[in-house]
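Sequence design from tokenized structure. All designs in this work follow the same two-part layout: the structure record, then the generated sequence. An example of the structure record is given first.
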């Protein structure tokens, strides 16, 4: 299956076999990892300042945090929905468009949703606000 997390034991096995000078094809056969997976983790580990020898000595938890760093905070949908009441007021003005409001949103939240998702969430917000008014 694609994008499965491999065990740290398998990753350490890859590191040890690499240190012994085995080719990626040999490592693939010995560990059962695909060569694409090996290349993926090799790229990640090569960017780290520690050597393979030092990486093998790390605990599973430390190695995991290198390979799978915590994701950066992204704006949540709750924050987006919190902006909609003010946007409703702005949209009632002449010349203000959803696209303009989305551009302002993207300046404030560069990792936020794209325009199509912004419009979809705004539509859901309007639908829920209409139900609340009834």
């Amino acid at each position: 299956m694609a994008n499965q997390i491999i065990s740290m034991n398998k990753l350490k096995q890859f590191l040890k076999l690499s240190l012994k000078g085995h080719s990626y094809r040999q490592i693939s056969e010995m560990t059962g990892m695909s060569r694409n997976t090996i290349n993926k983790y090799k790229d990640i580990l090569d960017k780290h300042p520690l050597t393979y020898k030092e990486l093998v000595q790390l605990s599973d938890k430390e190695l995991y945090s290198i390979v799978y760093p915590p994701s950066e905070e992204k704006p949540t949908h709750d924050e987006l929905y919190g902006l909609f009441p003010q946007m409703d007021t702005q949209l009632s003005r002449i010349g203000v468009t959803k696209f303009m409001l989305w551009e302002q949103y993207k300046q404030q939240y560069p990792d936020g949703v794209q325009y199509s998702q912004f419009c979809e969430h705004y539509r859901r917000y309007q639908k829920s606000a209409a139900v609340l008014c009834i």
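The radius of gyration is 24 Å. We note this feature because it recurs in several other targets discussed in the main text.
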